[in-house]
Every structure is written in C-alpha cells, then in structure tokens.
Write a structure and sequence with these properties.
Blueprint (H helix, E strand, L loop, with lengths): L1 H20 L4 E3 L2 H17 L1 H7 L1 H6 L4 H17 L3 E3 L2 H22 L4
Antiparallel strand pairs: 1-2
Length: 117
C-alpha cells in the first residue's frame, strides 16, 4: 500500500510539473486535480490497459512495440474524459509525449524513493 501511495503522489507531481513547465502538453487546474488524475490513471492502467494490450498484440508486434506509446496516450485521454474540464490534453501527439514523460519520470522518481528490501 505504501508503494501505491508513493507512486500516485509521484505521478501526480509529475503531471502537475508537466502542466506547469510544459503547458503545451497538458493543462491541469490545480494539484488536487493532478492527484485525482494520477489515481484514476493508476486504476485505468490496472483495469483497462491490460485488456487493450492483449487485444492489440498483433499491431504492437508489427510496430515493434511502438504502439504501446499510443495505448499510453489513449489511457491519458480516458483519464481526461473521466475527470472533465480540470484536466485537458492539447492533442494526440502531445498526449503521446506527455505519456512518455510521465512514465519515464514517474518510474525514475518512484524507484529512487521506494527502497527495496
């Protein structure tokens, strides 16, 4: 549970940071909305993303795995639709770039903050 909370806080911080430093990618109303987006993104990645990944195995194979970036962007779009006006993606390619940044920075920060025993 501790890892999940740390991951959600880190992802929320990354989303808010992207909104602040790169507003051409994502617009977030406030930090609470970023935390809500991180929580919903975690749930979407746990429940919806595996089904989409399994369905898209042929396309992912043909694209040498690059289609997974598209899936990540689609998951961000789903989060934006669920949250509504407080979380806005500028466009598809911006969502792809934002998904790459969110996954890379969140993974790096989470691994730095969480100690493995």
């Amino acid at each position: 549970m501790k890892k999940f909370i740390i991951n959600v806080l880190v992802t929320g911080g990354v989303i808010f940071g992207i909104s602040y430093f790169l507003p051409a990618l994502i617009k977030v109303a406030d930090f609470q909305t970023a935390l809500l987006a991180a929580l919903i993104l975690a749930l979407v990645n746990a429940l919806v993303r595996p089904v989409i990944v399994i369905i898209s195995i042929p396309v992912t194979f043909l694209s040498l795995g690059l289609f997974l970036f598209v899936i990540n962007a689609l998951m961000l779009y789903l989060v934006a639709k669920i949250i509504g006006p407080g979380f806005y993606l500028q466009g598809f390619w911006q969502a792809v770039v934002a998904a790459i940044i969110i996954s890379a920075v969140s993974t790096w920060l989470s691994s730095a903050l969480i100690e493995d025993k």
